[in-house]
Amino acid sequence: MLYRCLYPIKTSIQRYCTKGTLDNANFLKVTGALGWVLSGIAQVGAILLNNNIPNKEKKFLIPQEILDCVVNVSTFLFITSKAENIGKALVLSGKFLNKSAFDVAQKLKPEKLFNGKFGLNTSKKEFDAALNIIKNTIANQTNNKQIAQEFSDFYKGAGVITSLIGSIISGNIVTPIIRNRLAAVYQNKTHRNKELVKPQNTTIQTTSISHDTLNKYISMAQNHYSNMKI
Amino acid sequence: MAGIKPVTKIDGSYVVSPGVQNAVKRLGKISGAEQRLIMGIFALSTQPLIDYKNKNVDEQTRKFSVARTVVKIIVGTTVGTLVRLGTVAAARKLVFSGKLKPQKSEIAHSLTRLNDFAKTVGTFLGVLAVVVTNFALDMPLCKLGMDLVVKKFNLQPGEDKKT
After folding, report:
1. Sign of the four-CA dihedral A134, A136, A142, A147
2. How near does any CA of chain A get to the CA of B63, in Å?
3. Contact assignment for A226 to B54 by CB distance below 8 Å
4. Nearest chain A alpha carbon to B35
5. In this complex, is the C-beta atom of A113 within 8 Å of any C-beta atom belonging to chain B?
6. A226 in contact with B, Cβ within 8 Å
């Protein structure tokens, strides 16, 4: 019974991971983004389950957390996708090559083998189609499938490396800068609200309690948004 | 000549040596654990600096923020890498015992590619495990680490100053 319930999950994992093995750059990109999303869900869960945070503050912190997650994921996906395309385009246009593929190109004339035009917006389909044509040409020219496979591995490796560079730039440089700016916006907004709600003629005790509580949550939000985990 | 230099420019193409070619091929099969470790190392070298240069908050908050970032990266990278290594090891057992099978014969009939498939399954399971480890390991360890750092360096979260 349990096996029957788990069977569709098992099949899905097998299918997805088979695709992932054949296209590691895309797999790492998607799992990286999934990691961000799950981490965001965990952070939202932590806020929801924290009894020390009043409901009023939760209403403020949860949308912030979701917005932060959306910024992280979209920046990550955008930059890594474009970076991956750079690596793939460099290889398929013949600008960055392994020795055996270069030798084949020289025999054939490079413009005959690498005649496609690729850029940041080239689709995965176009890349795959071009790779297949070049792989087949290399295999036919050399009568050696190994050389074609070497070229294919080199192409995939180049895609993964540039995608990894993109994810490093995105996760470690672009996202923290955006996050810090967002945190500053949130802080300023909170300060303005604090000024608006600050009573003019109240006892010292009341003002002190309100100020401390607000400061506590400003610090909490500020530390949270300037230090989100990858 | 491409064998001597790592990269040689010939007729408008950058041709790599066999050593670089192997490195590119190897990096192309990087696992999630390795990716997490690389990301963590780079995070440690850039994020604390970005936080320290953040002029939107006062000096005390900046110090606190840097400390928190360092603790979170160390904890997150250590836990993330170890969890993924664990799930890759578990995935290897599942794949090589036939409980999980690739759906392409070209992978199933090659030991190297079957190993790549196991790494992929392990990485995928590792990402799912993050939901649990975030609560069970990352959060308490980060709190513990921060308590130690705050005590040792007498840090306090300061107030922001920018209006």
Report:
1. positive
2. 11
3. yes
4. A164
5. no
6. yes
**Pairwise CB contact (< 8 Å): B61 & A219:** yes
User: Starting at the edge strand that comes first in sequence, how are the strands of the sheet with B13-16 ordered?
Assistant: A96-98, B13-16, B7-10
Task: Please state, in angstroms and rounded to a whole number, the distance separating the CA atoms of residues B105 and A85.
Answer: 28
Neighbours of B102 (CB within 10 A): 25
**Cβ contact A24:B34 at 8 Å:** no
Of the candidates B124, B137, B147, the residue with the CA atom closest to the CA atom of residue B76? B137
What residues of A are in contact with residue B161 (Cβ under 8 Å)? Answer: none
Nearest C-alpha in B relative to A88: B28
Quick: pLDDT tens for A117-153.
898 889 989 999 999 999 999 998 888 888 999 999 9
* Tokens 């290594």 sit on residue: B85
Per-residue pLDDT reduced to its tens digit, A90-111: 999 999 999 999 998 888 877 7
* CB under 8 A, 24+ apart: contacts of A42-50: A42/B130, A42/B131, A42/B134, A42/B135, A43/A69, A43/A228, A43/B134, A45/B135, A46/B135, A46/B139
State whether residue A44 sits within 8 Å of chain B by CB.
Answer: no
Say how far apart CA A53 and CA B88 lie, in whole Å: 38
Q: Would the pTM count as exceeding 0.80?
A: no
Task: Indicate the DSSP class of residue A122.
Answer: -
Instruction: Look at B28 and A96 and tell me if their CB atoms are within 8 Å.
Output: no
Residue type, A213: T
Q: Among all chains, which residue has been given the structure tokens 């005959």? A: A112
* Option in B42, B56, B159 nearest A168 (CB): B42
**Alpha helices in chain A, H assignment, sequence order:** 2-22, 24-49, 55-92, 99-108, 110-113, 124-142, 145-169, 175-197, 204-226
Q: Which residues contact B116 (CB under 8 A, 6 or more apart)?
A: A21, A24, B29, B107
Q: Do B117 and A17 touch (CB under 8 A)?
A: yes
Q: Which of A114-118, A192-196, B88-92 has the lowest mean pLDDT?
A: A192-196
Q: Phi, psi (5° rounding) for residue A98?
A: -85, 160
Instruction: Write out chain B residues lying below 8 Å of A193, CB-based.
Output: none
